[in-house]
Each structure stands twice: as structure tokens, then as C-alpha cells.
Amino acid sequence: EDQVTQSPEALRLQEGESSSLNCSYTVSGLRGLFWYRQDPGKGPEFLFTLYSAGEEKEKERLKATLTKKESFLHITAPKPEDSATYLCAVQARGYSTLTFGKGTMLLVSP
Amino acid sequence: DAGVIQSPRHEVTEMGQEVTLRCKPISGHNSLFWYRQTMMRGLELLIYFNNNVPIDDSGMPEDRFSAKMPNASFSTLKIQPSEPRDSAVYFCASSLLLRTGGLSEGTGELFFGEGSRLTVL
Q1: Distance of alpha carbon A93 from its chain centroid, rounded?
Q2: pLDDT of residue A95
Q3: pLDDT single digits (tens) B52-88
Q4: What residues of chain A lie within 8 A of the CB of B116, using their CB?
Q5: A98 closest CB neighbour out of B55, B110, B115
Q6: B106 touches chain A (CB under 8 A)
Q7: pLDDT tens digits, residue range A32-76?
């Protein structure tokens, strides 16, 4: 059974204070690892897909990296508008569905 | 271009009542997913359809839950009878399923609606 564990559950940062979110996973043949952002009262919104160990993707202040066992979402010099819950999900090869972690709730204070 | 549209956004009902949640996927997408989100369990897949056909309903909790997709632009999730433990946010998502090497695999990019928050008293 595919499993995704995210840590920490919640993270509070000061504006400009860089940090990383962790996503550990077990999957029977990884097709892709996905990061989503969810704002309160909204549905998750796609951020990145990573397909193989060593791959990196960047978007503004966010950078996602992937190893064979975990992924990191690095947030550089965050701003209050980066506050959201960040969800990690995996897709096994040959399957069309995603298994999500419970997310990390990020709060960035001005 | 309109995204995934869900209704109602909020539903409060009493235990034992029937609840119907509705979803209109993005035009051109061929797969539709129903997820349930709670604080305790996070996002859980309930069922998914490909070309209007249910492919995997192993996440449906029990016989009280049923889902239909009569055409490419509409799906419903019904709970009858509802119970307090069904209280959650229900999300519908759509995607484009690609066929590679004989196996159909999703792009992994799901487009979610804004959810239906269900409270069963």
C-alpha cells in the first residue's frame, strides 16, 4: 500500500525566514511525486511534478527536490502570501490515482 | 475557462437524510475523482471514473455511498442515509488520462473544485 508522510504538521515562519517541508513516501514503483497548495476553503492547486531522484523544480520562492525515499519543498525568503497547506502526493506506475499525505500547514508572519 | 464546479458549497443536514453532491468537470477531461477530506485522515480517494465508467470504487466507505456519472459533464455522489461521521469536505477533481505503452496513466495534475462542506447533525 502506498504511503505518504509529511512533516512537520504545522510550521510557523517569520517573513524572510527560509525553511523546508518534508515528504517521505513508500510506493511500489514511482511514476511521479506531486506537490499541491491548498488555501483555506479552497481545493488543492497543483504546483509541481517530480519523476525521478535528483530532479528539481522551481517556482518563485518554492523549490521541490526528490530522492528515492523523500521529497523536500524548500521555501526561500517566504512572504505572508505563501501561507497555505502544502500537500504531497504520489502516483504509482500504471495507476491513475494519487495517494496524498495529510499536509503541512504553513503560516508566514509579517 | 471555468474550472471544476461543485454544488452545494455547504450542506447541513440531519442524520438519516439523503445527501446529493454534484460536480461538473472541466470540459475535455476524461477522468473524474471524488475525494473526502478530514483533519484526521486527510484527503482520501472515494471513487474515480474514466470516460464516465467507474474504475475504482474501493475507497467508498460502505453501501450508503454511491456515485454516478451519467455523462461527461456531470457526476453525483450520494449518501443515503447520512451519519454524523460522514461530516467532511468532499472534493471533486478532473484530469486528463493518457495512454502510454498500453497502460492508461493520469498526468497526475488534478484540477479540484472548491469542495462541498457537509455537516451531518
Answers
A1: 19
A2: 80
A3: 999 989 899 889 999 999 999 999 999 999 999 999 9
A4: none
A5: B110
A6: yes
A7: 999 999 999 999 999 989 999 999 999 999 999 999 999 999 999
CA A15, CA B100: separation in Å to the nearest integer? 44
Partners of residue B97 in chain A, C-beta under 8 Å = 96
For testing contact with chain A, the best of B38, B94, B109 (most A CBs within 10 A) = B109
Q: Give the integer Cα–Cα distance in Å for B121 and B118.
A: 10
B56 at interface of A, judged by CB pairs closer than 8 A: yes
Task: Determine the distance in angstroms separating the CA of A24 from the nearest CA of chain B, rounded to an integer.
Answer: 16
All three cell numbers of B55, joined, read: 474504475
Q: Which residue has the cell 517556482?
A: A59
Q: Whole-angstrom Cα distance, residue B90 to residue B78?
A: 11
DSSP secondary structure string for all residues of A66-99: E-SSEEEEEE-S--GGG-EEEEEEEEETT----E
- Chain B neighbors of A39, CB-CB under 8 A: none
Angstrom distance (rounded) from CA A39 to CA A45: 9
Q: Residue A90's CB: how many other CB atoms inside 10 A? A: 24
Torsion of CA A87, B110, B9, A103, to 10 degrees: -10
